[in-house]
Design a protein that fits this description.
This protein has a 24-stranded antiparallel barrel. It starts with a helix and ends with a strand. It is mostly beta strands and 880 residues long. A hairpin with a 2-residue loop joins strand 45 and strand 46.
Length: 880
């Protein structure tokens, strides 16, 4: 298998190097605008004002998808005007069947139905742009485009104005974009990059004004140009948005607990803002932010040693997130979440839980208070991108009650987070040199918090060079870290699942409990081809030294790893037979620790295709060869694990249909029958009208594992690593509905019931973790050596059968039940000013049973007393 994968990959690489086809640039188009004098158009979607006659229509769009290079099914034309403060755009989307125009209402950035879009590279740096979209129903969409089109940030929400109308010629959009929402240089005459795009919904056709092939290596640098803007001055953005929040909570009353009275209410206020510090740099800030309208994280049961990674959902941290991004390994692999800046660290759950005596109760905040945060972002005329984040979180205390007597205990220290990101474009972005620095500083005045790092510094330098019209690239990224703290803090860091310095067979790592600092490094080197037909590829290596520690303000899952990979893709993007597109990927990878010894290796082949009827199919097969895991024994020696196979398939219907669905399954099975996993999922959306849709996404997962870690227990001077067979089943379903009353008034519901149960049996202790034969790796604990006390829910082990308990451990069986839901009414009553009405509910229960029991678990879930939160949030935007 390994030999055949390598032969196939290197054959594709050979074709890629000697393939004569490459991305060809179309002739650059130019649109010349004129100033308005004296009266601007009224933004009502009806293009009847005489002022529009100052300029000519521009049309001749070209199809980009699916039949690249052809004439579009329907014509599109536009005009652009300007005055001292605004850019005005009129777009006419001609349609010979206006009754068939799809005008779906959705929330902002929904991009549903027929829509048109204008992209403006006002920096004219050939890498960044601002995108403004509107669909036929008048719903806005806006995105900040960076990295030459690799990143489209939908969380950028500028203030701009648009209306649409439908008539017997099709539909029209009228747009006004304040110059305060754009960034441009102080020149007498502006030259901006320009692109317009239309989605013709009925045929799922994309046409563009400036033709750019789907296989082109990039987007922004291939735009046409907007000429004719003269004498305008960069506008300094000023947007101040105070808000107030009222919150009422109801929950289960707990007798004797003075903090669990069953009801709690409070009112708070805060402030968000944007300031144009210079014509190039924007300052975003927030004081006492509230994110109560944000959707809850999905439920998970994590049986690994590693921290669960959650996506950021808070608006302040999401907008412009790509500017402060410093991930250095991309793709679908265990390292793709590693980054120097993980925004979920700011405002995290307090890290200390106080020890309580008998009859004591504690009142703890759910999250650390963010006193304030600011971001300074932008790009200078000389191509220097700047991103700075500064945030301060409060000292948090738990209030502890004992029969009315109160005391406080610190559970999170006062902390300062700082992030700096710089990138310099050279030769119009063909070469980019950048770097990042971060710091985390804690005020550790309380001895019981000495296990935290007092200071943590991370950073890196990255380099990207492209050539042959950006078709080929070479990238080098480095990462370093240095943390300081007490002996306890650094010892805990060495022993954490990220590092496991204490492993008895890690003789190449120095474990030192007297350290007061720890340093490490990481990085990546890669070379590849990202444009042209029909081959693309990437070859590279990435590494994380044993001492690399990023988890104060970044994220790293595990270290002591070096991985190489080869990826190659063969793509067909010209429709033929029944297909619109076909993508075939081949991957190969291997990994070592720093000893070095091979830990893993494998490869896969996968395929994704779209049919001409807009249905799609994907699937693949993966093989992992035998390897070792340095984390399975949670600080013990490496464990040999067998090779494994994995396949997956999925199918989805036409996403334009009123009733649409997707379904898929995956299966994993290891050799020697150590583990089997099966997953099944379905999603279905029903859209009876343009204003309403409801979707259901159930999933069912089965995990049958012979070697599931349970606990580590001491036995004399030795450790006993206890494993067991687990039979785990997990059932969940996500439900959503969207009611869109107007483009600015929406109601959304999200709900997720989640049930997972695990039953453990066939307990065993690891005896020779690297033995070649599976049965030689462990000794089964059975018969008279194992006794279960059902009253104490505890297993007792008499390993030497002398009648005395040698060690004991809790019953690991579990039933985890959770239901999370929220209902949000959002009304943008004037541009930039919003009213939220929110109801959210949470139910969580955990108990020990005999594994997954559907009826009992569902009944028990909805018997749990809910925690309800009712919230009203009002903001008002003062802006220039």
């Amino acid at each position: 298998m390994r030999k055949y994968i390598n032969i196939l990959i290197f054959s594709l690489l050979f074709l890629a190097f000697f393939n004569p086809l490459s991305a060809e640039e179309a002739e650059k188009r130019i649109y010349v605008t004129k100033p308005i004098n004296p009266t601007p158009p009224v933004i009502d979607g009806i293009l009847d004002e005489q002022v529009w006659d100052l300029v000519e229509w521009s049309s001749d769009f070209i199809v980009r998808e699916p039949n690249e290079g052809e004439d579009p099914s329907q014509e599109t034309s536009f005009k652009i005007l300007y005055d001292d403060n605004n850019l005005y755009v009129a777009i006419r989307a001609h349609d010979t069947e206006p009754d068939e125009i799809c005008k779906r209402l959705c929330r902002r950035d929904g991009f549903e139905g027929d829509w048109v879009e204008i992209n403006i590279d006002s920096y004219h740096d050939l890498r960044t742009a601002f995108s403004f979209s509107v669909n036929a129903a008048g719903v806005k969409g806006d995105e900040a485009i960076t990295s030459d089109g690799d990143n489209w940030d939908t969380n950028w929400d500028p203030i701009w104005y648009t209306k649409t109308s439908i008539d017997n010629e099709g539909w029209a959009a009228e747009i006004r974009i304040p110059f305060s929402q754009l960034r441009f240089s102080n020149k007498d005459e502006q030259v901006w990059g320009l692109q317009l795009q239309r989605r013709f919904f009925r045929k799922e056709e994309r046409s563009v004004w400036q033709f750019i092939s789907r296989n082109a290596p990039g987007w922004v640098h291939l735009f046409g140009e907007l000429h004719g803007i003269k004498g305008i001055q960069p506008k300094r953005m000023i947007q101040i948005m105070p808000y107030t929040v009222g919150r009422l909570q109801s929950f289960e009353k707990q007798e004797g607990n003075p903090f669990a009275t069953g009801r709690l209410s409070n009112v708070m206020a805060g402030l968000d803002g944007k300031l144009g510090v210079t014509r190039d740099l924007t300052l975003d800030f927030t004081i006492n932010p509230d994110f109560g309208q944000v959707e809850a994280d999905p439920s998970v049961v994590n049986l690994t040693a590693f921290e669960t990674y959650y996506q950021e959902k808070r608006p302040f941290f999401i907008e412009g997130q790509n500017i402060l991004d410093y991930r250095w390994t991309f793709g679908n692999n265990p390292f793709s979440s590693d980054t120097l800046f993980y925004t979920r660290r700011i405002g995290r759950v307090p890290q200390y839980y106080p020890e309580l005596g008998d009859n004591e109760y504690a009142d703890l905040p759910d999250n650390t208070t963010i006193l304030g945060a600011l971001k300074l972002t932008g790009k200078t005329r000389k191509g220097l991108s700047i991103g700075i984040m500064e945030s301060v979180t409060a000292l948090e205390r738990a209030e502890i009650d004992l029969f009315g007597a109160r005391r406080q205990e610190t559970i999170e220290p006062f902390t300062n987070y700082f992030v700096l990101r710089l990138q310099q474009d050279i030769k119009k972005g063909d070469t980019i040199i950048g770097g990042m620095l971060t710091s985390t500083l804690r005020n550790l005045d309380d001895d019981h918090l000495d296990y935290l790092h007092k200071s943590a510094y991370t950073g890196g330098i990255d380099f990207l060079h492209t050539w042959k019209e950006k078709t080929y690239y070479f990238t080098l990224t480095t990462v370093f870290s240095h943390v300081r703290g007490s002996k306890e803090a650094i010892q805990m860091t060495q022993e954490s699942p990220v590092h496991y310095f204490q492993r008895p067979d890690a003789d190449y790592i120095t474990y030192d409990p007297n350290r007061i600092s720890l340093s490490g490094h990481g990085g990546q080197i890669a070379f590849g081809k990202q444009g042209g037909d029909p081959i693309q590829f990437s070859v590279g290596t990435t590494w994380r030294s044993p001492g690399l520690e990023l988890n104060d303000v970044g994220y790293v899952r595990n270290t002591d790893t070096i991985m190489q990979w080869i990826w190659a893709q063969y793509r067909i993007t010209d429709p033929f037979a029944i297909f619109n597109t076909i993508f075939i990927n081949v991957n190969q990878w291997s990994g070592w620790n720093f000893k070095p010894e091979n830990m893993f290796s494998g490869g896969n082949i996968n395929l994704f295709t779209q049919f001409k009827n807009q249905w799609g199919f994907g699937g693949g097969i993966n093989h992992e060869f035998e390897g070792i895991s340095i984390s399975s024994l949670r600080g013990g020696p490496a464990l040999r694990y067998p090779g494994a196979w994995n396949y997956w398939v999925n199918l989805h219907s036409d996403h334009r249909d009123r009733i649409r669905f997707g379904l898929g399954t995956s299966s994993y099975w290891s050799e020697e029958d150590v583990q089997k996993m099966n997953s099944y999922w379905v999603n279905m959306t029903i859209q009876p009208s343009n204003a309403f849709s409801i979707s259901f996404s159930p999933s069912y997962n089965i995990n049958d594992d012979t070697l599931q870690y349970v606990t580590t227990e001491e036995y004399g001077a030795e450790n006993r690593y206890i494993f067991a067979h687990i039979d785990q089943k997990t059932l969940s379903m996500t439900v959503r509905f969207n009611l869109n009353i107007t483009p600015d008034l929406t109601i959304q519901f999200y709900g997720q019931p989640f049930i997972s149960g695990g039953k453990y049996s066939e307990f065993k202790r690891i005896t020779d973790s690297r033995a070649q034969v599976l049965d030689d790796r462990y000794d089964t604990i059975n018969g008279e050596r194992l006794y279960f006390d059902s009253d104490e829910e505890t297993y007792f082990v008499d390993e030497d059968l002398n009648g005395t308990t040698d060690y004991a451990f809790d019953n690991p069986n579990f039933n985890f039940l959770q239901f999370r839901a929220n209902l949000v009414l959002r009304w943008e009553y004037i541009p930039g000013s919003t009213l939220y009405l929110v109801w959210s509910q949470g139910r969580t229960d955990y108990y020990t049973n005999d594994g997954f029991q559907f009826r009992n678990d569902v009944r028990n879930l909805f018997d749990v007393k809910p925690h309800n939160v009712f919230l009203i949030k009002v903001s008002y935007s003062f802006n220039n």
